[in-house]
Amino acid sequence: MASQTQGIQQLLAAEKRAAEKINEARKRKLQRTKQAKQEAQAEVEKYKQQREQEFKAFEQQYLGTKEDIESKIRKDTEDQINGMKQSVAANKQAVIVRLLQLVCDIKPELHHNLVLQKKLHGQFAA
Questions:
Q1: Distance between CA atoms of 80 and 126, rounded to whole angstroms?
Q2: How far is CA 5 from the centre of its chain?
Q3: Basic residues bias located where (predicted)?
Q4: Cβ of 117: how many Cβ atoms within 10 Å?
Q5: What is the dihedral of CA 36, 42, 45, 51, to 10 degrees?
Q6: Whole-prediction pTM value?
Q7: DSSP 30-91
Q8: Residue 123 DSSP class
Q9: CA dist list (Å): 97 to 53, 69, 86, 91, 106
Q10: What region, left, alpha or beta, does residue 105 occupy, with left being phi > 0 and alpha being psi -120 to 50 degrees?
Q11: How far apart are CA 86 and CA 78, in angstroms?
């Protein structure tokens, strides 16, 4: 009976050691997973920064700096405003003459609805 108890004790001790080894292995695995995740995150961040720098270089090469774009837009706007001012100056007198003609040269005519009504009824409706 003592040998059975001793055998059971050995089995229990072996089971306990196996459980401890499994727990240690799980802890190591968890630690390796966390480390791998941190390394992957650092690599992603490094790649992101590299791509951002490449994009900024590309942007400056093909689009120019923000100030360049701003000055180009400002110049284009000023050119358009100057074109409009020249168009106004060139057509101002003609527009004024046409407006005066329309306002001053009044030709009294009957309203077209009245003319239609007269045609339909042969006379004016009261």
A1: 57
A2: 75
A3: 26-35
A4: 15
A5: -90
A6: 0.42
A7: HHHHHHHHHHHHHHHHHHHHHHHHHHHHHHHHHT--HHHHHHHHHHHHHHHHHHHHHHHHHH
A8: S
A9: 61, 42, 18, 10, 15
A10: beta
A11: 12
Residue 125 sits at φ, ψ, to 5 deg, of: -90, 140
How many CB atoms within 10 Å of residue 118? 13
| Both structure tokens of 41 | 């995150």
C-beta of residue 124 within 8 angstroms of C-beta of residue 117: yes
CA-based radius of gyration for the chain: 47
Which residue has tokens 């074109």? Answer: 83
Are 124 and 118 in contact by the 8 Å Cβ rule? The answer is: yes
43: tokens are 């690599």
Q: Side chain identity at 61, as an amino acid letter?
A: Q
Give, as one character, the DSSP assignment of residue 122: S
Q: What is the DSSP letter of 24?
A: H
pLDDT along the chain (126 residues), means of 10: 81 93 96 96 96 89 79 94 95 94 87 87 62
